[in-house]
């Protein structure tokens, strides 16, 4: 049987296997089931009844914030043994799990990872996650999430890479490469890699009112220019699977839209992996009231292009009849199965179906991963204010360490983490004591606010750790007010009243409003939900062992009234639209973040200043570290198409580089802007490059003022 021969190419093996399969065997590949790990018997019955394409691990939908035991390596191998040996063709099962920002070693939430503006670091992060998964028998992660979001009330903003399509696309590619690695000449992934899943396709991040699962209305122009680029980049990077979203978009549920899934994704973008529904999103076509029953839901979703159904059983119960009655063509079924089998072969599942118990033990020692996590976590933190009190001076003798986040563990990990890890992270207090054994650290013995204020009065400097719980972020966890939870603003104000230098740390899964905290703080470090090594990384920054260089991947509004909020708004017919009771400018712009040193960006040169269509320009600047310590700067390049046939953003990020400079050191930093950067989806959704003038700015946030221009002839 040729399909069993690993020396043949993936395509040859799929071509050999597909015609051998019965209708039932084909349909089994299109089914992903969920069985709680404590019911192993049930899954065996299930496989024996319908066969099995895939199994989702984890506990329940909304798995982001619950205690769960995922299946162990022996259970997974046993399922695989049944699939391989007790079924005629021996087709392996693909096991999927939401590994969103790490498995055992938890990295910052994806929004924090985006703040690194460092695709290499992101690739390494997802590579570590892949290695951990692979060794434990998990073949597929439902990540990265590529939803652009302009509304921080939406709880799932935590899971994405922010508001910008260009940054989102770079991060998407890095995460996918980290998970999937490269294919060899026969189309196989190397060991220690897994399958990635670009989700939630598409527009899920623009849920009305920021309420999860809600309706979205996005014009085709905005859909293609703002929401599509990360998915387009993911497809170009070879992502093996895409998850269809829950929401109703422009009058069609995304999981039942032929336009989105087949015309745009598979045909226009050329996606050749497979589409999995979101959890129950096929059956939810009934709740959207576009299908009357499960049979119609199966028909609509399968026809639209959903190749595998997650958890619900519309396909299991109805696909066979739909195919036999000619309502769904065998050609469409073959296409779905071909896509799924291709990924299974590519992953090497037919050749190495079992997780290696010995190898899984090798990763018990996670110290190398912890070192990597500490580094990337420090890279993700954003210094939003500093009157010079950070880094903490070497002669500080008494630090008051107060606030609701001093002794948190679980909350530091953020959402989408298996709660069994809850006790593992160091607390901020433990990390600070470990790094400053000679400093007196005062804490509130009973965690009472009045104690905190009294302690603040006795210290040389106050570290106030604020934040929101992991349970306030993630799926179905939207909020209406972006303020920190009750009492924290008052605490900041009262502590500041004691007159001591005050550094505030904020641990959060979204931009919270800092408007009433900022005036009281001498310094403010935004630490996100930073993961397993979060406390240690924050202390590295407080002590100046690491110079912060993270930048905001989302705009921080002054208040909810500014939502939807994003830097890349369009030009309007009149002056910039305003509010009468609040400035239009946000509190912190996209791309913003301070350092312990200073950088100057000068001498912008554009070369050449006139180009023919299809050519590129180089834009360069000199970046100088004019401060006293070494540091890193994220140099950002923004572009404006001065006159275009369709309205375009005032400026758009089109390049960034995170560079390290010693004090006094200068470097020329160059960006190449080519047709890809200058083009956009124009009339009729076609990709156009229009002649005319372009403006370019380089700086260290989206307000960059150093300007140049060029002409595209
Ligand atoms: C979420 C997805 C997730 C899936 C599987 C759904 O509720 O929307 O992001 O991958 O569950 O857990």
Principal-axis shape:
globular
Report the oligomer: single chain
- The first-to-last residue Cα distance is 58 Å
> Which sheet architecture does the biggest sheet show?
6 strands, mixed
- Determine the structural class based on helices, strands and strand pairing: alpha/beta
Q: Segments where pLDDT lies below 50 for 5+ residues?
A: none
Fraction of residues in helix: 25-40%
Report the β-strand fraction as a percent range.
15-25%
Small-molecule binders: beta-D-glucopyranose
Question: How many DSSP-defined strands?
Answer: 26
**Spatial order of the strands in the main sheet?**
11-16-15-14-12-13
> How many helices?
22
Using only C-alpha atoms, the radius of gyration works out to 26 Å
Compute the average pLDDT.
Answer: 95
Structure description:
The mean pLDDT is 95. The termini are far apart. With 713 residues, the chain is an alpha/beta fold. Helix 10 (258-268) packs parallel to helix 12 (294-304). It contains 22 helices and 26 strands. A 6-stranded mixed beta sheet has the order 11-16-15-14-12-13, sandwiched between helices. Residues 58, 61-63, 98, 142, 199, 278-279, 475 line the site of beta-D-glucopyranose. Beta-D-glucopyranose is lined by residues 58, 61-63, 98, 142, 199, 278-279, 475.
Fill in the keyword field for this structure:
about 725 residues, alpha/beta, 6-stranded mixed beta sheet, 5-stranded parallel beta sheet, 22 helices, about 20% strand, globular, binds beta-D-glucopyranose
């Amino acid at each position: 049987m040729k399909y069993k021969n690993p020396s043949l190419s993936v395509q040859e093996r799929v071509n050999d296997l597909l015609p051998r399969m019965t209708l039932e065997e084909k349909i089994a590949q299109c089914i992903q089931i969920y069985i709680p790990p404590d019911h192993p018997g049930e899954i065996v019955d299930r496989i024996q009844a319908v066969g099995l394409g895939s199994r989702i691990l984890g506990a329940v939908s909304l798995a982001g914030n619950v205690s769960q035991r995922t299946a162990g390596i022996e259970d997974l191998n046993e399922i695989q043994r049944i699939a391989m040996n007790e079924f005629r063709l021996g087709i392996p099962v693909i096991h999927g799990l939401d590994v969103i920002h790490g498995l055992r070693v938890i990295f910052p939430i994806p929004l924090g990872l985006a703040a690194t503006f460092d695709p290499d670091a992101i690739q390494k992060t997802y590579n570590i996650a892949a290695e951990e998964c692979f060794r434990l028998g998990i073949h597929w992660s439902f990540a990265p999430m590529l939803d652009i979001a302009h509304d921080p009330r939406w709880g799932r903003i935590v899971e994405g890479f922010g508001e910008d399509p260009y940054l989102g696309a770079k991060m998407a590619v890095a995460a996918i490469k980290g998970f999937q690695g490269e294919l060899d000449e026969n189309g196989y992934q190397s060991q220690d890699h897994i399958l990635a899943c670009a989700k939630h396709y598409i527009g899920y991040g623009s849920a009305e009112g920021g309420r999860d699962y809600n309706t979205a209305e996005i014009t085709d122009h905005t859909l293609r220019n703002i929401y599509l680029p990360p998915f387009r980049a993911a497809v170009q990077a070879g992502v093996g699977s895409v998850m269809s979203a829950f929401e109703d978009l422009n009058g069609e549920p995304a999981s039942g839209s032929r336009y989105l899934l087949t015309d745009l994704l598979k045909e226009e973008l050329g996606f050749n992996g497979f589409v999995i529904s979101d959890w129950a999103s096929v059956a939810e076509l009934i709740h959207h009231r576009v299908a009357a029953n499960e049979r119609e839901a199966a028909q609509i979703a399968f026809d639209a292009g959903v190749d595998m159904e997650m958890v619900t059983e519309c396909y299991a119960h109805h696909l066979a009849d739909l195919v036999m009655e000619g309502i769904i063509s065998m050609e469409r079924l073959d296409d779905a199965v071909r896509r799924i089998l291709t990924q299974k072969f590519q992953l090497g599942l037919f050749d190495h179906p079992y997780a290696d118990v010995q190898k899984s033990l090798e990763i018990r020692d996670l110290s190398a991963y912890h070192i990597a996590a500490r580094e990337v976590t420090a890279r993700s933190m954003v210094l939003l204010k500093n009157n010079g009190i950070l880094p903490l001076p070497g002669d500080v003798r008494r630090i008051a360490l107060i606030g609701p986040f001093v002794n948190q563990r679980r909350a530091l990990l953020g959402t989408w983490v298996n709660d069994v890890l809850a006790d593992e992270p160091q607390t901020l207090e433990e990390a600070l004591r470990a790094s400053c054994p000679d400093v007196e650290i005062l804490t509130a013995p009973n965690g009472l606010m009045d104690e905190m204020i009294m302690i603040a009065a006795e210290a040389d400097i106050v570290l106030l750790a604020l934040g929101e719980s992991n349970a306030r972020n993630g799926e179905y966890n939207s909020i209406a007010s972006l303020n920190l939870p009750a009492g924290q603003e008052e605490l900041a104000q009262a502590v500041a009243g004691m007159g001591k230098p005050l550094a505030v740390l904020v641990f959060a899964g979204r931009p919270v409003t800092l408007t009433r905290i900022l005036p009281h703080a001498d310094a403010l470090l935004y630490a996100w939900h930073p993961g397993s090594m979060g406390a240690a990384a924050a202390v590295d920054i407080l002590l100046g062992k690491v110079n912060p260089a993270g930048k905001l991947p989302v705009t921080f509004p002054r208040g909810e009234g500014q939502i939807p909020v994003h830097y890349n708004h369009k030009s309007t017919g009149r002056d910039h639209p305003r509010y009468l009771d609040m400035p239009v400018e946000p509190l912190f712009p996209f791309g913003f973040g301070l350092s312990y040193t200073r950088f100057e960006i000068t001498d912008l040169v554009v070369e050449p200043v006139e180009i023919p269509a299809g050519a590129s320009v180089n834009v360069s600047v000199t970046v100088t570290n004019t401060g006293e310590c070494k540091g890193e700067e994220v140099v950002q390049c923004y572009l404006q198409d001065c006159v275009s046939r369709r309205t375009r953003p005032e400026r758009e990020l089109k390049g960034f580089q995170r560079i390290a400079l010693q004090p006094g050191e200068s470097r020329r930093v160059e960006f190449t802007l080519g047709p890809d950067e200058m083009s956009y989806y124009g009339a009729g959704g076609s990709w156009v490059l229009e002649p005319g003038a372009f403006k370019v700015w380089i700086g260290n946030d989206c307000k960059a003022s150093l300007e140049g221009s060029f002409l595209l002839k």
